[in-house]
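As a next step, the fold was encoded as tokens, giving this record:
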Amino acid sequence: MNLSPQHGSTPSGPRIAVLGGGIGGLAAAAFLYRAGLHATVFEQAPALGAVGAGLVVSPNAVRLIRRLGHLESLLEKAVPLEVGWEFRRWESGEVLSAEQLTGRCEELYGERTYVAHRVDLLESLIVAVPEEWLRLGKRCIGVTQYSEVAELKFDDDTTFSADVVIGADGVHSVVRGAIAEAEPAQYSGMCAYRAIVPAEAAPEFARRPAQTLWIGPDHHLVHYPISSGTAVNLVAFAPAGDFTEESWSTKATIEEFLDEFAGWDPRLTDLIRAAGIPGRWALLDRAPLTQWSHGRITLLGDAAHPMFPFFAQGAAQAIDDAAVLAQCLTLDPDNPENALKAYEQLRIERTTKVQQLSHARKDINHLPDGPAQQERDAALAQGDPLVKNAWLYGYDAESWVKEEHAPTAGPERD
């Protein structure tokens, strides 16, 4: 059974299939709709937004969400940060460095920085996508590219023919296998613990509108409020031992979590005790791709550039990808292969840089106490960290396309 539109009902422009209904896939669909193009989004889960925890929505992503017209949906529950990247010493809580965001973030970059539950960000994107574009419970098992079309095959024996296939299907991407030779991820030696703490059970210091990072030997821990301040997102990183499972559903125990942070500031162990059963997953290492578009097929978000979560840019980079991709397809709708190659060229250098910076924090955050740690702490205290990140927060994905790829863009929906 072929699910492609029947002759006579096909919308104008290329037929676009988006694999994945996460942040990247929904952002791609939203920007395609805004640009006047048509897409069909396939998601293997029976419902959208069922899993996830907290994330940072930085100015480079906020300005794009605002243009979709549904920022208010996100701001109903997102927490505007007053302090960002507040680094603290593991045993005492001494502040090593912090970004003072209130007022200055808007002044420098035109937008604030927020922290939010992943589901709340997803909902702000879902409302920007026509409901009839979404097909849930559709698990893709293969992608085949022909000279004039690409075909998706699903586990229910249906197929879909498209002029463009966008693989936004995450770190275990099926679409990625149609572009790059399959290589197993490397074992990083780290794992993550994640929990959400009810605000009434969290210590006062964790309820502040601050993105706080406690760094110490072989470990670091991050916390910030989410969901209108009713909860605190908690994520921590530690040696993994022989644990190698990479799954949102794997659980640990509070005792295992506490053992990893024995001897740290008592405020942190109190916060961990207030959490429910934590999730635990291994962080696997994947080298940056040198190519993520081939013919009519391209990748986006984690499928293209999976990265450690140490730079808090995974969601924002996926949204940036989506905006650039929609612009490129709008500027060259009759030659999608050229459009996808232009998208790759405009994004790959930047995302590779973010991947590499995220990777480097693994070693920087986890230095043992000693001369190298003291040098790191001194470096953190130098300069203005908010200004240091101008290359990231000041980036306007859509303006970048117009400047680098073509002088004008195609029609957009209001």
User: Anything to note?
Assistant: Confidence is low (pLDDT under 50) at residues 2-10, 407-414. The two ends are 36 Å apart (CA to CA).
